[in-house]
Amino acid sequence: MDLFKDIAGYGHEQVVFCHEPACGYFGIIAIHDTTLGPALGGTRFWQYDSTDAAITDALRLARGMTYKAAVAGLSLGGGKSVIIGDNKRTDREAIFRAHGRFVESLGGRYITAEDVGTSPADMEFVHYETNHVAGLTGLSGDPSPVTAHGVYVGIKATARAKWGSDVLTGKTVLVQGCGHVGQYLCSYLRAEDVKLIVSDVDEAKVKQVVAATGATAVAPDRIYDQQADIYAPCALGATINDDTLQRLKVAIVAGGANNQLAERRHGDALAAQGILYAPDFVINGGGLINVYGEIHGWTAERSKKKAGEIYDTLLRIYDLAAAEKIPSYLAADRLAEERLLKVGGMRPMWMPG
After folding, report:
1. pLDDT by residue (tens digit) across 194-218?
2. What is the pLDDT of residue 141?
3. Which residues contact 302 (CB under 8 A, 6 or more apart)?
4. Is 72 part of a structural domain of the chain?
5. Which of 68, 80, 304, 306 is catalytic?
6. In the 8-state DSSP scheme, what is residue 109?
7. Would residue 171 show up in a list of annotated catalytic residues for this protein?
8. What would the DSSP string read from start to end of 25-57?
9. Same domain, 199 and 329
10. Is the distance from CB of 52 to CB of 3 less than 8 angstroms?
11. Domain span at residue 29?
């Protein structure tokens, strides 16, 4: 890959490559945009197929965080970290302390938190080396409950835009991914008497959700072939692609995963097929809101209430998409870019020294 071309294409400010040989730590920190405030984004720990794949993931995720913060109305920029390796390794202190040192070296331009493959306990190790970390045990901790609440209200808003009512009773929802967000989301949906069909590569997680909600389990690759009303991707990204678009039998795509579109053209394809797409960086913004609330000392209830605003934000996006005759993902981009442009274009003021 041509790294500088990709950085320019995505509009990143800075990408840092990190290595600590003592513990085999290899990390990438991507800072996309700090127009609205310091870049905030979680640390993902994953066994990537290649270094190029890790870089691409970091760049895409960081850009998504910029747009997520902008649409949510937060004073934050966008960033992301990835650590390359086996996220099931048990000797974690040195890995995350090394990561914390590199975060600290950025002087507050970047704030990290947990993400896929990491936990509040890992963030405690990061905290040994830097104060620029959130999602700590005893504070906001696991952002999944707030993320899931935002996804749930986002699904209801999307149902309202598609069918004229946000009542989900009797609908069938495909939930791909039974991790923390997927589990909490299934609980919300089950309470509304939704028929759930779930899948995950981790059979133990699937069994937990089935036992708790009465969901029907299917093999991971068969989730796309089920007849349903809504597909809620809550695992890794790029599950809307050339293959799955031919197999999905749903009216709505709305879930908690990041980077759900393998390519932007797949957002156009969803619109062409009459499938209403809830832009991922909007509907899954609850996790970022949760971390922002921790930084500013919000109560858990205030963070959850702020995540509830995702409902109205999505309705604005769908209205804009309809008025401009553009796909919903483009309407979401416009909303984010409008705020970045307005704030970034503010004239500087003289301040007394």
Report:
1. 999 999 999 999 999 999 999 999 9
2. 63
3. 293
4. no
5. 80
6. S
7. no
8. EEEEEEEEE-SSSSEE--EEEE--SSHHHHHHH
9. yes
10. no
11. 3-64+77-127
